[in-house]
Amino acid sequence: MKKGKITITITIGLACFVLVLILFMQFKVVYQTDITSIDTMKEDELRTELANWKQKYNETEEKYKNTEDTLKKYKEESSSDKDTRKTLEKEIEDAKLVLGLTNVEGPGLIITYKNSDNIEQTINQEESTDKYIGATDLLRLVNHLKDAGAEAISINNQRIINKTDFAQINDTTYIKINSKRVSAPFEIKVIGDADYLKGALIGTGFVSDQKKYGQTIEFEEKKKLTINKYDGNMDLKYIEE
To answer: Most buried by CB count within 10 Å: which residue of 34, 58, 163, 208?
Structure first.
């Protein structure tokens, strides 16, 4: 009996760590916001950006409250090993989904996002309206999809999670996602409501903006999509216990 109690205590500790890790990643995304870009935004863009960050704040606050409720539930169910084990198993599965550590399936979209066919010839010509797809373009696209309720996203088989980084490699068409180099054309898999997802990109003007630069975005609805789990390193290097 004593050994069983020790096992449950350790398991609860691990579950709490995972929940705190999720909150830390959410706050990290907020902390890394590029404030300098605000100066160049128009009034409508500022309103949209404010609404987006208000939503992200509300989501973070909700996760914090959910974490508190879960910890309270652990304490209330500590007298029942069976109930505690079930609660822990469910919370760990939910946490793994949020962290992108499991393969997922569901209906959604495959989005093909491509540069202009003649981008290589015009990439160094300042007078051309064509431009190559950059890291900020992909980040905007991902944020629009998240706002539309995307439950899982991958770009060229790279699972997008809260800690995913988008970085332009110097003055090239290459982009680093999860520290791995990718380039156009981009195949973006999204699990969620296909109509909402398409509406998020079309209704916000994202698709029309990209067409101005010679880029194309194509949609393909799928009744069943598989998005692979995140395969990067989840270690935290700088948090002190």
So the answer is: 163
Start-to-end Cα distance in the chain: 30
Q: How far, in Å, CA of 220 to CA of 216, rounded?
A: 13
Write the DSSP string, 156-221: TTEE--TT--EEE-TTSS-EEETTEEE-SSEEEEEES-HHHHHHHHHHTTHHHHHHHTT-EEEEEE
Alpha-carbon distance of 174 to 193, in angstroms, equals 30
Report the chain's mean pLDDT, rounded to a whole number. Answer: 76
Which residues have CB under 8 Å from 70's CB, separation 6+? 15, 19, 87, 91
Residue pLDDT, tens place only, 7-45: 566 666 656 665 656 655 555 544 444 444 444 555 555
pTM: 0.62
Contacts 24+ apart (CB under 8 A), 210-215: 210/113, 210/133, 210/137, 212/129, 213/116, 213/129, 213/130, 213/131, 214/115, 214/116, 214/118, 214/119, 214/122, 214/129, 214/130, 214/131, 215/113, 215/114, 215/115, 215/116, 215/131, 215/133
pLDDT tens digits, residue range 138-174? Answer: 999 999 999 999 999 999 999 998 888 899 998 788 9
- For the chain, domains (ranges, CATH) are 2-99 (no CATH), 104-227 (3.30.70.1880)
Residue 149: name the closest of 94, 208, 106 by CA: 106
